[in-house]
Design a protein that fits this description.
The structure is a single chain. Helices cover 41% and strands 19% of the residues. It is an alpha/beta fold. The chain has two domains: 12-244, 3-Layer(aba) Sandwich (Aspartate Aminotransferase, domain 2), CATH 3.40.640.10; 248-341, Aspartate Aminotransferase, domain 1 (Alpha-Beta Complex), CATH 3.90.1150.10. The strands form four sheets. A seven-stranded mixed β-sheet has the order 2-10-9-8-7-3-4, sandwiched between helices. A four-stranded antiparallel β-sheet has the order 11-12-15-14. The chain has a two-stranded parallel sheet with strand order 1-13. A hairpin with a 3-residue loop joins β14 and β15. α1 (14-21) packs antiparallel against α10, α2 (34-47) runs parallel beside α10 (233-244) and α11 (249-266) runs parallel beside α13. The radius of gyration is 20 Å and the shape is globular.
Length: 342
């Protein structure tokens, strides 16, 4: 079975597992785990933030950021189809008691004039806007890259109004490696999260980055949310090893591109409306309005391919380190065969 549901399904490599066995440990609740401390410092340095905090998940990192940047009853501008709004179990409403304001966007890049209009309308009858949250890469747009230049422009615009900028960078390394290795996010963003368990191949964990003051407060919120752990170096060592091998992400892009090129010439055009590939590790198959994407997913499964549903009409294929380049031709043929049965 080829599992293309997500890049979270990867199993840790032998190298990653062995790093946990030899990790130097301490109590992270007392900030005494040297492996965690080094990882936090390293990640902050890589992306040009002052400090980092290891958290159990990207959701935790995102929600801590919203708790710090906002007040109850305020508003967060974000793309209407963003992960932080739609796929975090209503956590923002439950924890921060904020509401989201949808922003117009193209492939995750928010329209600056539209954002400014929203900010200026935030007066008597509407909540005060405190934060803008973007997602890079942008999942709902097919894993599209939000360019570093567009992030700089957004930051410049919202700083005029003293708003905070948070980046849900669960897959930000896909963007960094394809966007001229631009990674000085700390120069323009107030906070950023990225996942070690998506594409990078670690089993657990995310990193939250921000200023010294931000991370000090984030550490307190992490404790309140039950995220404080002890000998975290066991996990952090695996995260660090995965991060050091991040260049391999580009191989996943190559795999996805090859399958996309094959599919685009051979897919069932009667029932599959379009195939979307935005240059990273995902392919979206958008089925026609009258068709059921779950039927296509079942056919894929019957042909030894696990695929995932995204939205109401799209089937997602995600390529990762556990899908080997030698398997791409076989996967492509199985996808085409399944498409013909749909």
């Amino acid at each position: 079975m080829f599992d293309l549901r997500s890049d979270t399904v990867t199993k840790p490599s032998k190298e990653i597992i062995e790093s946990a066995i030899t990790a130097e440990l301490g109590d992270d609740e007392y900030i005494e785990d040297p492996t965690v401390n080094k990882l936090e410092e390293h990640c902050a340095e890589l992306l040009n933030f002052e400090k980092g905090l290891f958290v159990s998940s990207g959701l935790m990192g995102n929600q801590i950021s919203l708790l710090i940047h906002n007040e109850p009853g305020t508003e967060v501008i974000t793309p209407h189809d963003s992960h932080i709004k739609n796929y975090e179990h209503g956590a923002a409403a439950f924890l921060s008691r904020v509401q989201f304001r949808d922003a117009q966007h193209i492939d995750g890049v928010i329209d600056l004039d539209y954002v400014e209009k929203l900010i200026l309308k935030s007066k008597v009858h509407k909540p005060q806007i405190k934060t803008v949250s973007i997602e890079n890469t942008h999942l709902a747009s097919g894993g599209s890259i939000v360019s570093f230049d567009s992030i700089k422009s957004l930051s410049s615009k919202i700083k005029e109004y003293e708003l905070k900028l948070h980046v849900d960078g669960a897959r930000v390394w896909h963007a960094i490696l394809e966007d001229n290795n631009n990674k000085n996010y700390g120069d323009y963003c107030d906070s950023l999260t990225f996942c070690f368990s998506k594409a990078l191949g670690a089993p657990i964990g995310s990193m939250l980055l921000g200023s010294k003051e931000f991370i000090k407060e984030a550490r307190e919120y992490r404790k309140k949310l039950g995220g404080g752990m002890r000998q975290v170096g066991v996990i952090a060592s695996m995260a660090n090893t995965a991060l050091e091998n991040r260049e391999s992400i580009l191989e996943d892009h190559t795999k996805a591109k090859k399958v996309y090129e094959f599919l685009s010439q051979n897919f069932n055009k009667r029932k599959i409306e379009s195939i979307v590939y935005k240059g990273t590790n995902m392919i979206f198959l958008n089925v026609n309005e009258k068709e059921d994407p779950n039927k296509l997913i079942k056919i894929f499964h019957d042909n030894s391919i696990n695929a995932g549903l995204i939205g109401e009409k799209s089937v997602r294929l995600v390529f990762h380190k556990d899908i080997h380049k030698e398997e791409i031709d076989e996967i492509s043929k199985k996808l085409i065969h399944s498409s013909s049965e749909f």
